[in-house]
Amino acid sequence: MPLPPPDCPREPSQQRQIRIEGFRRADGLWDVEGHLLDTLPHDVQVGGGLRRAGEPMHAMALRLTVDLQATIRAAVAVSDAHPFAGVCGRITPAYEQLVGLRVGPGFRRQVRALFPPSAGCTHLSELVLALGTGVLQTLATALHRDPAVKPFSLDGCHALMTDGPVVRQFHPRWYRGADALPPAA
Q: What percent of the chain has a predicted confidence (pLDDT) above 90?
């Protein structure tokens, strides 16, 4: 369902695109890549010179390599376009500090602690947070193959609450509603 039409005339001001892709690697690990692209519909003068309308203001990418437990085994960031030449791109190696973190409860807090505003790039740090969800989505298929393991997505949103009708229908083993049968002994 599309958004309803705006109630007032408007003109474009800024566009951000974020793309996340997950890949299963031949070595048993998983790569999850995020790409962020910002463009403006008008020319703007920045520290790196004049940016013409439609040229990237920010073009950045980040790859996380994770294992099946969602532990980050490698991280690499690049910044192909940014407003301050010779400055912005220097922060990308700092994102190697993500290695060893596990994507799951507390991940966002750990990322924010590693990359406060003065120790990171706002755009790359936002991309890391989006990649957390991308990691879980990428691993979901592999993790849901074992029926004895509770799917990580349960109790993660209102549709997948363990006391709700979706879980009762599609994941009855994990259903915990008032009308649930007692667990088998």
A: 66
